[in-house]
Input
Amino acid sequence: MAPDRDTPLYGQQTRLSFENFPAPGRAFGDVGEFVRNYALVKLAAARANQAVGVLDVSRADAIAQACTQIADGLHGTEFPSALVLGGGGTTTNMNVNEVVAALASRLGGIDVHPNDHVNASQSTNDTYPTAMALTVLDLVARPLAALDELAVALLRKAAEFDETPHLGRTCLRDAVTVTAGQTHRAQAAAIQRAAEGLRSAAEQLTSVPIGATAVGTGLGAPDGYAEVCLTELVAVTGHELRPAPDLFDALAHLDPYAAVAGAGARAGITLAKIAADVRLLSSGPAGGIGDLTIPAVQAGSSIMPAKVNPATPEYVMQLSYRIRGAANTVEYAVAAGELELNVMEPVIVDALVSIFADLTGAATAFARRCVAGLAWDGPRREANLAGALDSWVTLSTESGYDEAAARYRKTPPPASR
Output
């Protein structure tokens, strides 16, 4: 019998999660990409089950219609279970199974069972990591686009101030002259390298374990199901997917996610270093380095009029700390896998969602609210250049290091000239 339209589509297993996993945090439904991709996994499974004779046409079509509606963003309130929960994602899988079954029953006017029909030929063991991988592949596009935008912004600054000289420093001491163009091109190269590392790490997740069922055995799935399901999944997701080379490995070892989290942390570290450099170079204006200026995005003090703080670089730096903390969570969860299955996948998903959101926010804010308005017109830039050691390096090559050092020690410091 089809469910009443006024009652929730989810069932008892979803309801139990309210009591069993009450900690505040993201709900499954808060990550729309995860809901969408889980629905697409169920859609591909239904079509594969029809092809291999597990489901009749009417049930397969009803399940496919239900999954399509969910993937299109309808019924979003039907996925209230916690994102982070115990049991290796079983509750999440059952939340999807229950909603799809109830909706398919309503749409097809037939009885569709969440386990016998929607979950046919499947297990949480293989559907959860498959939907998880697809979700990461979708979500990672945002920080990658933000990092690319930041790299472009830095290259624009390099072109704008290509020949503008400023004092280079090592160990926070005067060194030799460099140009702003050289500085910004180096920063852009670091951001591009970080983005490529994240892109390459995520690419590993295109190998998915669909068809592995319980602990990688494939038990309960008929011959040919896995191949057809993967083909259908490629068609509905648009991702170039391939089967995991070893299904047992794919379920037991989640180190590719540690690589993704690590690449995200590396990008955050790079962002923080560049933001800290900009913050230091813009310090002052009278008592700091004062080589460059950055946009005044808001008041810098509630008591000191006209004070301006490097709010955007400080925002970027703080987000990088949180990114690294979330990456550490992923590392712990990956290491916590036991025997044939890693059941800590939910907290890995949650942490990666945080990493991608913070990385996107940091790179976007830095590009648009700081780098775009940055100028090498600081009040001390030209005066600081007096401390450049270029001529002393040249003298060292001509007269020897000791001679140049001796003559330098007899020279009045720049401040007294």
